Amino acid sequence: MRRTRRTKKLLWRWRSNPLRRRDDIVEAWIVLAVWTLVLVGGIVAGLVTASAADNVFARQRAEREPVRAVLLVGVPKSVSGFGSGSERTPGTVGWTAPDGSTRTGRTLVDTGSKAGSKVVVWLDQQGRLTTEPPSAGAAAVEAGVLGTAAGCALAGLVLGAGTVTRWRLEQRPLDLWGREWNTVGPRWGHKTG
């Protein structure tokens, strides 16, 4: 009995009722559409974004290759006093390209490295220095975070639009009642004499 009463309360806009207004039906459809878009759209947006991000990271791992290089100028230790000693700072490195030519460039190296130290740099397909691609595990985590953020962003936008639409739908009768009161109210203020 209690469950039936609760169900009736939840679905009151859908039942035939002499007090039900057209706006109640519209509001019920808006609520249904908003929650459907939040659930289905949020999941789809999250999955599409995560898949696209994972494809980008996989392409980066396939296109970039590690190359051994030599640090040309020593990098001093960090003076900040913070960190665990694994800080990185820009340094000048030299390496041999696949065509046999010697190249130099700047990339991030560990602080405190001495000139002549061996470092690993990452090159893109054109032979330019680039950053290390994320590992498969790190890429999966980042793709998951990006997918979750995309799903939440879409859900927030849809909920916001639904809230504004419902608020505007509720304002219409209030505006109508306000106009009617402005015409009827002054008549009630006169004293009969």
Task: List descriptors.
single chain; 193 residues; alpha+beta; 5-stranded antiparallel beta sheet
Please describe what this structure looks like.
The chain contains three helices and five strands, in the order ααβββββα. By secondary structure, it is α+β, with helices and mostly antiparallel strands. It has two domains: 1-14 and 21-64 and 133-165, no CATH class; 65-132, no CATH class. A five-stranded antiparallel beta sheet has the order 3-2-1-4-5. Helix 2 (22-63) packs antiparallel against helix 3. The longest helix has 53 residues, at 136-188. The chain is elongated and about 100 Å long. The model has no long low-confidence stretch (mean pLDDT 85).
Task: Report a brief summary of the structure.
By secondary structure, the protein is of the alpha+beta class. It contains three helices and five strands, in the order ααβββββα.
